[in-house]
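Crash report, auto-generated. Payload:
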Amino acid sequence: EVQLLESGGGLVQPGGSLRLSCAASGFIFSSYAMNWVRQAPGKGLEWVSGIRTSDGTTYYADSVKGRFTISRDNSKNTLYLQMNSLRVEDTAVYYCAKSYNDIWSRTDYWGQGTLVTVSS
Amino acid sequence: DIVMTQSRDSLAVSLGERATINCKSSQSILKSSNNRNYLAWYQQKAGQPPKLLIYWASTRESGVPDRFSGSGSETDFTLTISSLQAEDVAVYYCQQHYSIPQTFGQGTKLEIK
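Recovered output after restart:
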């Protein structure tokens, strides 16, 4: 059974940093692209970042480019999102999401999400 | 970026009746090399993460009831629930994964009339 377990969310002041983690199990983590998708309170879904498995290429939404960094540790089956220079508008539930195969494929599994609140 | 627009923000349908949710992309998401539409539909119930329902615009994910179906091509897509059940109350999102950034429609909230 595929499981994705996010952690690391919490309350942070504007300008601060936070690192999210996603522990994956139930599939061969190193074989699949992975993503972070967020959802602001009461709002829709926004793809934030993705990372391929073949060459580790990373992709970002314009809204987070230069501030967020996605990475993966295939030896630990873990996906990360380093978030710097956080803004109030980054407040959201952050979901770890597995791609069906490469980055240009549907998202077939989602974690339960971790809440990030940016507020003074 | 490809903009995904769902025609309605909310929809109320009676139990047992048909529900139709429309989604339009700002450019074609049909890849000519494999003749696939890079369009997926997700269901999100309150307090839960999204769940994949339909991929390639019309292929049902394993375990999804057959009352859910998808149709359309290139820029215009539809999710149909043939006979609405109480457990179908949710927000439904379309998503294109043809290009990065992947983008979602704004969501359609489906309720019981």
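Post-recovery validation: Chain A has a mean pLDDT of 97.
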